[in-house]
Write a structure and sequence with these properties.
With 279 residues, the chain is α+β, with helices and mostly antiparallel strands. It is built from 9 helices and 5 strands, in the order ααααααββαβαβαβ. The protein folds into 2 domains: 80 residues, no CATH class; 170 residues, OmpA-like domain (60s Ribosomal Protein L30, Chain: A, 2-Layer Sandwich), CATH 3.30.1330. The relative contact order is 0.13.
Length: 279
């Protein structure tokens, strides 16, 4: 009995080896996994990079089977990636042509509709044409109606005078039947202006063009056909060293763009001609 009791009371002091063996096994598995994910497959990486390049450039590449790379020798290898494609070159915006274009030399032969429009405008504005306040002619863009600012606005202001509203309303009745683009351009002379409303001639010329455009819209002209722009003092048609030149450079130009010139919609219509000075 005593011997059996001694065997039951014996305790195994080496059970820690089981936990130690489990820890070593897990540690080995951890290092194996780390080694596996640290080795880069160059073939798969190359295919991935080429696929990304083709997706961004829009040039599909022919599929190439993935090939396993040679066994690693322990040294770090440098992967050669395909060059990044350069961005497409944006065409430069053409600059505004300099110099005055002669209406007779540059004007194309107008079609029947544009010629009829010019004749209709000349008949409508004949009194203003006779006193030199309005000039109408055909240009490289289309039909140009130049109105002297003295019949439209008080000096240094962009509020249309009552008589100007009547004249522009008559012009609008004709323009609202025209399915072409209509450009309204404002100009000033080189006399400086610096007020709370108009800090410079840029503001004044643009405000005058917008004022005429808004009247046209109120009179029924399609807003989608209208373009308003201010050119400030930088496109005079006469020298600014005389009173007559200063008066002629204050103007608003209405350009009905000819349908046969769609490529010239972005060009400068202001050099098409000038208001004639008449007695």
């Amino acid at each position: 009995m005593s011997r059996r009791k001694q065997e039951e009371e014996w305790e195994n002091h080496e059970r820690w080896l089981v936990s130690y063996a489990d820890f070593i096994t897990l540690l080995f598995a951890f290092f194996v996994v780390m080694y596996a994910i640290s080795s880069v497959n160059e073939g798969k990486y190359r295919v991935l990079s080429e696929t990304l390049v083709s997706a961004f450039t829009g040039h599909p590449l022919s599929p190439v089977p993935v090939q396993d790379s040679a066994p690693s020798t322990g040294s770090t290898s440098v992967l050669k990636l395909p060059p990044v494609p350069s961005a497409a070159r944006i065409a430069a915006v053409p600059s505004v042509a300099k110099g005055i274009v002669s209406p007779k030399a540059a004007a194309p032969k107008p079609d029947a509709a544009m010629q009829q429009l010019q004749q209709q405008m000349e008949k409508l504005l004949q009194p203003l044409i006779r006193n030199g306040s309005v000039a109408i002619h055909s240009s490289a863009l289309g039909v140009v109606i130049d109105l002297n600012a003295k019949i439209l606005f008080p000096s240094g202001q962009a509020t249309l005078m009552p008589e100007a509203q009547q004249n522009l309303a008559a012009i609008a009745k004709v323009l609202k039947t025209v399915p072409y683009q209509i450009q309204v351009n404002g100009f000033t002379n080189d006399l400086p202006i610096r007020t709370a409303q108009f800090p410079s001639n840029w503001y004044l010329s643009a405000a005058r063009a917008v004022a005429v455009t808004e009247l046209f819209i109120a009179e029924g002209v399609n807003p989608e056909h209208l373009v308003a722009a201010g050119y400030g003092k930088y496109h005079p048609i006469q020298p600014n060293n005389t009173a007559a030149g200063l008066a002629m450079n204050r103007r608003v130009s209405i350009v009905v763009v000819a349908p046969q010139n769609p490529s010239k919609l972005g060009q400068d219509p202001i050099m098409a001609g000038s208001i004639e000075q008449r007695g």
